[in-house]
Recover the amino acids of this structure.
């Protein structure tokens, strides 16, 4: 019998007013697997990612992380929405990295990383600082502990953001176009950190435009367009031999 | 242009190293300065020589014990009423942004009522509260009551003024705080939530500290305004600074010098508030500016240093920011 997947989506729908952004997305991400999601802007890939940690509520379908329904509890045929504190507890186990970094500007790099362990998990300050120092060292920023985000380059900020997410010891990491806001020469450092995470066996869902990274690191590549999965599979297969016209059209523009 | 290989052209053009930029001249500024100076001297001369100002009396009453007591009461009223206003403002602002429609409408109603009626009218209402309610009971609504107090015993004159000014201020502060909260990027809340914080934790730890940068300047404004609004308490015969001066002038029939005394003290307290606001703003500027603005002491030290050394060497490099 197969182990339970880390993420499982079943006919997930999401509407913003009259606009249906997700129109029945189903997929599975196994433990330790890296899934890259590509697609044109407005295809719903970022929205889907945000549904996984309940930053967006889904309208239809079901979504599980590590066997737990996201944002709801099921009793019989009814889904009961979870309370704020319960949602927060689930979210604490899922790391998220944003396109615009979203570091806390009034806190130093070190303070950004220790904030959640101290506040959410009530970890002692000393212990949190030791953890944060080792994480910032791991992303190559051991000399930037006392810097405020405004004093860091975009690539450095994004690496602090990754360390901040890792400080909660997540079982799943979500990346929402982590390199799209970076100058080209800074992209490599961030991708290196992500590659290292993947090699360490972290389960990752990465929305990205870095086709090269997807080809090299992803176990599964998903191409989304207009709120549905058009094509999914082994990245080498999908990139070298796309089965769908829309995939071919998209890849011809980005490759 | 032809390049400078031709020696005849090179001699016509000055050495590029010697070309200097001349800033535009501002003769208008000198003219304006002269006009302002003449006006200022005229006013100062008239104020100093007009005997009706009675500067001698101003000096005599400036440190009068009755005046100083009034200053103290004014400061106490300002602090208590503004504190009440800030606390209420925070509460009402958070309620206003609540997803619960009942809670947000209640806060809307509060703001509507207290901003929509003159503060003087509100003060007179509180002053006459004894005519509205003779007594207050504390207990379970429509159930047993535990404490029963007469209105005039519960609501002292001091409390009347603090309640009237504080409740009114709360409505204004609510809008100030709300402006601060919505000025913080939604991404900050999302990042906090994604780390497992609850909405309240995200608000308290992440959003409010950043909102403070927007909240503090208008709050300083409100505090200074509050300092002067406390003079309305004189209408209900509560002895604060203005009432203390008019108590004296009603005896000696010299209102002008005593109004000057009051003005001087209002200016003194306002100036102290300026200093407090400067340091508060500096505290919450952490992370927003790469370098905190210098304190006056640091500025003085830096000024002395830059005279002693080459000013260019000590000035911070404006291009030192890394790019992302």
């Amino acid at each position: 019998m197969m182990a339970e997947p880390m993420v499982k989506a079943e006919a997930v729908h999401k509407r913003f007013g009259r606009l249906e952004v997700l129109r029945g997305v189903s997929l599975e991400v196994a433990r330790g697997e890296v899934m890259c999601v590509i697609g044109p802007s407005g295809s719903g890939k970022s929205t889907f990612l945000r549904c996984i940690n309940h930053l967006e509520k889904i309208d239809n379908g079901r979504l599980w992380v590590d066997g737990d329904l996201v944002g709801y509890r099921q009793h019989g045929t009814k889904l009961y929405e979870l309370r704020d504190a319960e949602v927060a507890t689930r979210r604490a186990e899922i790391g998220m990295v944003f396109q615009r970094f979203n570091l806390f500007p009034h806190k130093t790099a070190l303070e950004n990383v220790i904030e959640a362990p101290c506040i959410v998990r009530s970890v002692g300050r000393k212990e949190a600082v030791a953890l944060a120092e080792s994480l910032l060292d791991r992303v190559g920023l051991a000399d930037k502990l006392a810097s405020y985000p405004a004093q860091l380059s975009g690539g450095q900020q994004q690496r602090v953001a990754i360390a901040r997410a890792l400080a909660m010891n997540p079982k799943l990491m979500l990346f929402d176009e982590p390199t799209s806001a970076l100058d080209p020469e800074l992209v490599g450092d961030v991708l290196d950190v992500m590659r290292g995470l993947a090699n360490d066996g972290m389960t990752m869902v990465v929305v990205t435009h870095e086709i090269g990274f997807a080809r090299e690191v992803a176990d599964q590549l998903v191409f989304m367009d207009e709120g549905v999965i058009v094509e999914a599979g082994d990245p080498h297969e999908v990139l070298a031999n796309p089965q769908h016209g829309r995939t071919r059209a998209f890849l011809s523009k980005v490759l | 242009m032809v390049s400078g290989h031709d020696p005849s052209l090179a001699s016509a053009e000055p050495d590029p190293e010697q070309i200097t930029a001349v800033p535009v001249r501002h003769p208008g500024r000198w003219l304006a300065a002269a006009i302002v100076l003449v006006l200022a001297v005229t006013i100062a001369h008239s104020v100093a020589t007009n005997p009706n100002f009675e500067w001698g009396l101003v000096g005599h009453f400036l440190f009068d014990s009755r005046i100083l007591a009034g200053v103290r009461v004014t400061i106490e009223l300002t602090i208590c009423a503004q504190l009440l206003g800030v606390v209420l403002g925070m509460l009402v602002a958070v309620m206003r942004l609540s997803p619960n429609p009942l809670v947000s409408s209640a806060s809307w109603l509060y703001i509507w009522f207290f901003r929509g009626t003159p503060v003087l009218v509100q003060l007179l209402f509180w002053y006459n509260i004894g005519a509205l309610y003779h007594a207050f009971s504390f207990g379970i609504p429509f159930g047993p009551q535990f404490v029963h107090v007469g209105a005039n015993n519960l609501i002292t004159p001091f409390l009347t003024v603090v309640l009237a000014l504080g409740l009114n201020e709360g409505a204004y502060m609510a809008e100030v705080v709300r402006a601060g909260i919505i000025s913080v990027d939604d991404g900050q809340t999302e990042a906090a939530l994604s780390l497992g914080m609850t909405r309240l934790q995200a608000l308290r730890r992440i959003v409010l500290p950043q909102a403070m940068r927007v909240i503090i300047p208008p709050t300083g404004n409100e505090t200074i305004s509050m300092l002067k609004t406390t003079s309305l308490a004189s209408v209900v015969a509560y002895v604060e600074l203005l009432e203390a001066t008019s108590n004296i002038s009603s005896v000696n029939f010299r209102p002008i010098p005593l109004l000057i005394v009051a003005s001087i003290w209002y200016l003194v307290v306002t100036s102290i508030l300026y200093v407090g606001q400067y340091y508060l703003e500096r505290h919450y500027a952490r992370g927003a500016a790469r370098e905190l603005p210098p304190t006056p002491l640091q500025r003085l030290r830096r000024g002395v240093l830059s005279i002693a050394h080459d000013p260019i060497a000590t000035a911070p490099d404006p291009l030192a920011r890394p790019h992302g």
